[in-house]
Amino acid sequence: MGRALGAAHYGGCLSCVEILYAIYRDIDRSAIQASDPARPFVLLSKGHAALTLYAVLEHFFGWRFDADGSVDSISCHPLRRTDRGIEAIAGSLGHGLAIGCGRALWCRRNAHRSLTYVVMGDGECQEGSVWEAALFAGHYGLSNLFVVIDRNGFQQRAATTDRSRYAASPNAWSAIGWDVHSVDGHDVERLSVALSPERSDDRPRVIFADTVKGRGVSTLEGELGSHYRAVPDDLLQSAIADIDGGFR
Asked: Which domain holds residue 125?
């Protein structure tokens, strides 16, 4: 897909594969495709990982996204298609959590038991709108809201800790009323446990998923330059070989 577009955000796409896989594998296709406003709601706030979202939706539900200019054509950031499980346009970072908060509060006030999931990046946590929404969710005890932070350690031009040591800090989220969990973000089973709807309190849950940017491709893994780039033929072939061979 990235080759069809000319370039893509490979690093952040590869770091969140298991996160999206763990969320979607337990969601019924008919439920997420329904027009029912109480359907399960998944929002990819780190919209630059759209290619992973398309791949996961095709894997579980058979929905294809192609680079042919059709209504289902791909782009580097998701465009809203609720009949294809894409709940909101994303790309400008910092908006997804606020949308998720509104949706979770609406479900609770209307006695709907469906859950809201928001997938964010660690660099995204530096946006002020994220903290307005996080304070809101903590205050209202939105226990039907799950946030997964893809903590791969990099943002577009730097390591995240070079820009802020506190934005993606579990202690900061715990202090404002969140139920905080930290897991290996490439372990699907551990992610699934943390995403379990069984709750013992009324706090929103945030899961810090520790990941590796560009994971699984030797020339991209852990590299700042993997954030957005073109992939020439020789790199494409080596990347496919890494994935087929189970590079770690």
From this structure: 2-245
